[in-house]
Amino acid sequence: MLERYARPAMADIWSLENQYNTWLEVEIAIDQAWAEQGLIPADDLKAIQKNAGFDLKRIDEIESQTQHDVVAFTRAVSETLGDEKKWIHYGVTSTDVVDTANGVRLKQANKLISSDLKELQKLLKSQAIQYKDTVMIGRTHGVHAEPTSWGFKLARWYDEIRRHIERFERVAAAVEVGQVSGAVGTFANISPEVEESVCASLGLNNQPITSQVLPRDLYADYLSIIALIGSSLESFATEIRSLQRTEIREVQEFFDKKQKGSSAMPHKRNPIGCENISGLARVLRGYLVPAYEDITLWHERDISHSSVERIVLPDATTLLDYLLTRFTKILQTLEVYPDRMAENVNKTGGLIYSQRVLLMLIDAGLSREKAYDLVQPLTKKAWDEGLSFEQLVKESPKIKELLSPDHLADAFDYHYHLRRINEVFTRLGIH
């Protein structure tokens, strides 16, 4: 992953040094389990726990000859030990170590992502409450529909992130697993008890059955949820981008006084953060195809998945961590313009209240068809001639016969459209 899109804590998790650290942690856990089974003498285990280490340059040197990174690693570790080195990698195969270590690193990454999600949800909740009654126009098909509020929109995002937290907890638990089952997963050279001990010591669950490798549908499922979260962030970012357009300008990304929006046009203030989120969400979705194709391996295993996962697992988790924290910052500093929102609510001369008028006429005794056919020509005249729909309604002889001035005043009051928001917030547990 490019440093530009990698936060330090996540970058450390996927560093080469941490890869080897987790590999070593797994190897030592395996020896600990063997010692519990009575195979490895206590003194040998103590020596391994105390002295086992590695040198990155030495691993590179060995790998240049062996063309196998796990063999290079185990040999480099063995060079730091005495006779007890014979217990390193005893009874296991490469993927026992690699897959289990991936479980460790994914657990580390998941902790960061879970924290990111909860931080964003917390912010959305507080801002939803803050802007609960800040009226703005709701749009369908990009066209003015009926009034809503900025807080109501944020509450929808809050609930979407709540669903993502639930989804992520499920897939995170599914990939925080290990397996130490031997060459084809049959435990021929190692016991299930060793696997269970190793996984327990590392804080992982053990996969019930494998074929030397963990089932790759686990990773595909995990990456699909990461892509789904990214798509939601893109949806939120796209809304902000649209609302920042000059013609609307109801919200705007914070623009620092030293910031530049364009190399050519000094006036420009572009929603670059949200555009960045939209672009990187596409990258996240791009990881889905190779992740799904990794499910198909030859027989018990091949190595076609390995090169893919060296890219997609670090990159996807790193990008999601970046996107979540960046969007949270955008939202924290977002400039919201309630006056502009109110101005846009009134922009169409009351056309947005056409349904309210329609329903009032039905309540007054008209059939739906007659009420609709009475109201629609007035909306057309208002649209086409740039007139006030509210004024046309109040001047209509047929409507005045059915609705009093007080009823008509109520029909064009936006508060009616926000009257149920408290009930919805209660449903969501937003107080």
Automatic annotation (TrEMBL):
It is an enzyme of class 4 (lyase). CDD domains: Adenylsuccinate_lyase_1. SUPFAM superfamilies: L-aspartase-like (SSF48557). PROSITE patterns: FUMARATE_LYASES. Residues 349-429 form the Adenylosuccinate lyase C-terminal domain. Pathway: Purine metabolism; AMP biosynthesis via de novo pathway; AMP from IMP: step 2/2; Purine metabolism; IMP biosynthesis via de novo pathway; 5-amino-1-(5-phospho-D-ribosyl)imidazole-4-carboxamide from 5-amino-1-(5-phospho-D-ribosyl)imidazole-4-carboxylate: step 2/2. InterPro entries: AdenyloSucc_lyase_C, Fumarase/histidase_N, Fumarate_lyase_CS, Fumarate_lyase_fam, Fumarate_lyase_N, L-Aspartase-like, Pur_lyase. It catalyses: N(6)-(1,2-dicarboxyethyl)-AMP = fumarate + AMP; (2S)-2-[5-amino-1-(5-phospho-beta-D-ribosyl)imidazole-4-carboxamido]succinate = 5-amino-1-(5-phospho-beta-D-ribosyl)imidazole-4-carboxamide + fumarate. Keywords: Lyase, Purine biosynthesis. Its EC number is 4.3.2.2. One of its GO terms (molecular function) is lyase activity. PANTHER family: ADENYLOSUCCINATE LYASE (PTHR43172). Belongs to the lyase 1 family. Adenylosuccinate lyase subfamily. This is Adenylosuccinate lyase. The lineage of its organism: Bacteria, Bacillati, Bacillota, Bacilli, Lactobacillales. The gene is purB.
